[in-house]
Amino acid sequence: MYKLIIKINVVGKLGRVWIAYMPTQLVWDKRFFVVFGQNASRCSKQVASPKSHGGEKLIRCLVIGSACSHSHPLPYLEKKKVYFLARSISLLSSLSFPLALSSPTNHLYSLAAMSIFEYNGSALVAMVGKNCFAIASDRRLGVQLQTVATDFQRVFKIHDRLYIGLSGLATDAQTMYQKLVFRHKLYQLREERDMKPQTFASLVSALLYEKRFGPFFCQPVIAGLGDNDEPFICTMDCLGAKELAKDFVVSGTASESLYGACESMYKPDMEPEELFETISQALLSSVDRDCLSGWGGYVLLVYAALLTPTEVQEKILKGRMD
Amino acid sequence: MGRMTELPTKGGFSFDLCTRNDMLLKNGLQMPPFRKTGTTIVGLVFQDGVVLGADTRATEGPIVADKNFEKIHFMAPNIYCCGAGTAADTEAVTDMVSSQLQLHRYATGRESRVVTALTLLKSHLFSYQGHVSAALVLGGFDVTGPHLHTVYPHGSTDTLPFATMGSGSLAAMSVFESKYREGLTREEGIELVAEAICAGIFNDLGSGSNVDVCVITEGKTEYLRNYQLPNPRTYISSKGYTFVKGQTEVLSTKITSIQPKVEAVEGGDAMEE
Asked: Which residue in A has a C-alpha nearest to residue B23's C-alpha?
């Protein structure tokens, strides 16, 4: 990942400071600026170079954002090295964010005041149609602003007619999934049948509430076919407060956009093909407005027809890869 | 090594992720906002019983997570409880006390009393010193008559003829203070409760959507879900969005058919003697 180095070369009253990190908030002062990484060449750069007034030295500000920021040409760059003018080292301590100065391992949380849910990024939505339901997710796995995988699985199967999508911190999502599969298998052994979606929702809620004061940072979206092929969807916050909806449920970092898109695009009693188009368009348009999720889409649609056997369709969507 | 298998736990809270979460917080990551019920919840005593009322908005930070959330929870056939605060806490606490009341009814063979529910709630909340963030309005009708109580997250309780809780409590209390009197009839009671909730809905940002009302009298309880819908959705285009089939670009498709399972019939043939 990113190495954090501080190399100070004092030239007279000014120093050359190199600091490496990946910020999500940009802080700059007239006198000194921060940041860019040793891996700067791999990041897009945004440069602002205000000229100061009253005879102060020209100061350059280099701000590195994520892959979603703009890049401007840097005429004064020499071999991808950028150097800054800083008054003194003591000014660094007055930076308004904590700097991790030392080891390469300390790159993870050092400077971002991010929410834990924004660490990996996710987008999940489930919708109900006529005798069918669809659950869709994005496919990006990131570590703050860097993308690590573009085929990450967020929707998991519990049994043939019940699926759970888990957004939030990826490690907690995977742990939750493993615990749930374990509990479901025990249930299958005892009861000799699959769990109903309503029962499963209560199980997930209980498991999450058990950790009330040290919660799992994941928000599940549960979708399944209950008795008489009645579709069932439900979401919860990270403490297990259930929201049983009759139309759609959303979760993840893109949830605000998803709420808006689903409110407008959803219609009751949609047929499977129309439901697939609606949920895909809602997902793709919402993740366009979220930096942390996207990079393709995955839609799973379960359709219970009267005479034909129940059908499960899994589709990978082509989306913007930025 | 610790235990490799994880047995289903015996109940109560488990604190094993707390050290990890503390470490995350120290390293600068913020805790996520929990789903709260911003809320206006009210109750009043009228001549024949108790009327409870609640709005139906559930919020997650500034976003509305659920537009039609049920805040009036069942405790016993003659006791209902409205909950404000963290949604998971109100649901879990009311579910738990409801189960305890059911067991108590089986043990004693009598109808539950409101003070029983009250004591169970307040002792649970007090033992968690306010960290279980549930503010409740508990009302019911038992052999001793109608009762209305409020329970605060730290475990204190009040017994009142009319009560309001939640972020919209001031708006609702203003309506009660001006218009409440002893000996209201059923219709007047419901009318007053609906007016108080509407005051909360329209003046408090944490409350919104619809009005739920629950009327508890001797031997009879009526839960009027969505009694008033003062905020209908009128802005939807009747045509809606129509997407042409094939509009979304698909990279790959996989279709599986689910084979119907043969169900084992419960209570099949009796064993032969």
From this structure: A109
pLDDT higher than 50, residue A49 = no
The single-letter code of the amino acid at A316 is I
pLDDT of A298 reads 96
Torsion sign across C-alpha atoms B28, A257, A259, A167: negative
Handedness of CA A87, A90, A95, A97 (dihedral sign): positive
Record: contact A267-B88, CB cut-off 8 A: no
Query: ipTM score here?
Result: 0.82
Strands (E), chain A: 6-11, 14-19, 45-48, 61-64, 85-86, 123-128, 132-138, 141-143, 146-149, 155-159, 162-168, 218-225, 231-236, 242-245, 248-252, 297-303, 311-317
Chain B contacts in chain A segment 62-81 (CB below 8 A): none
Are B248 and A114 a contacting pair at CB < 8 A? Answer: no
Q: Which residues numbered 40-79 in B keep a CB inside 8 Å of some CB on A? A: 58, 60, 63-66, 69
Q: Which helix (H) or strand (E) holds B150?
A: strand B145-151
Low-confidence ranges of chain B (pLDDT < 50): 1-2
Q: Mark whether B144 is an active-site residue.
A: no
pLDDT score of A105 = 39
Q: Is-above-0.90 flag for pTM?
A: no
**How many CB atoms neighbour CB B144 within 10 A?**
9
DSSP states of A231-249: EEEEEE-TT--EEEESSEE
| pLDDT, tens only, B171-209 | 999 999 999 999 999 999 999 999 999 999 999 888 988
Work out the average pLDDT over A153-181: 95
Determine, for residues A215 and B28 on separate chains, whether the beta-carbon distance falls below 8 Å. Answer: no
A109 vs B contacts (CB less than 8 Å): 24, 27-29
Q: Across-strand partners of B216?
A: B50, B221
